[in-house]
From TrEMBL:
Protein name: 2'-phosphotransferase
InterPro entries the record matches: Ptrans_KptA/Tpt1, RNA_2'-PTrans_N
Catalytic activity of the protein: 2'-phospho-[ligated tRNA] + NAD(+) = mature tRNA + ADP-alpha-D-ribose 1'',2''-cyclic phosphate + nicotinamide
KW Transferase (keyword) present: yes
Record keywords, A-Z: Transferase
GO molecular function, one term: tRNA 2'-phosphotransferase activity
Keyword Repeat: no
Gene3D superfamilies: RNA 2'-phosphotransferase, Tpt1/KptA family, N-terminal domain (1.10.10.970)
Region (Disordered): 66-98
Organism this protein belongs to: Trichosporon asahii var. asahii (strain ATCC 90039 / CBS 2479 / JCM 2466 / KCTC 7840 / NBRC 103889/ NCYC 2677 / UAMH 7654)
EC number: 2.7.1.160
UniProt feature, compositional bias: Low complexity: 88-98
Amino acid sequence: MPRPNDSPDVAASKTMAYILRHGAEKEGLHMRSDGLILLDDVMKAVDRPTVFRLVNENAKKRFELLYGYDPSPPKPKKTKAPKKKPAPKATDGEATGATAAGSVDALAAQLDATTVEPTWKELEFVALPAPAEGEQGDQRGAWYIRASQGHTLKVEDAAMLEPILDNEDGRRRAGLLVHGTQWKLWDTLIPRPNSTLHIFLSLPLLLAASIPVYSSANGVVLTPGDANGFVPKEFWRMAVHISEGKRTVVWEDGKETERVEDENEAEQ
């Protein structure tokens, strides 16, 4: 969320990221399973010119605009069934048949009050040619927006991410699989002082273990990890500790090591 001293652009970008990645449901906005939200709904927080400019100028391409329409039927609102009334109890002197009849009537009333949610199916988003600025587009169309990645809300990855395979195209799109993080996190594995850490991953080993790897619309390479959400060390190619301009290889060939990386190796 924006901070008081953020510039207008930074505040608007943070607001968009919050809505598109985390807060749509909380803000009462409908998000499709592919992460798309009607731009008119988002513009209650950020105006249209600002949205288009921020999307175009964002160096990391965190947001994606699409023109088209959602052919899905309106999603029914959830309703709560009325509280069930307890069945009448028999009292002294009542006939057994009367008691049974009362129970049946009460059960029938409960069944009538039960709300059955109608089935609803989301249909695939239909993309249309985007109209030029100042022109009127297809009457069915509207602008939609989504975050390229980083959602905490549940979205369908297959609709937003393209699987990477261990072939020429996959290796080209993946490039070097490097996760950059803080060196202090290495302490969870092996104690070390604080600094910076780059972890290089092996695409063939990940895919051989059925751990999927994806690329997002903005070129970010992502993986959900194993069943527990982790990428264990057996899938690491190398780990490099960077401190004061010096790169030291601290993990290689499945074991700890400590050697200074030469310049040519660092560029590979």
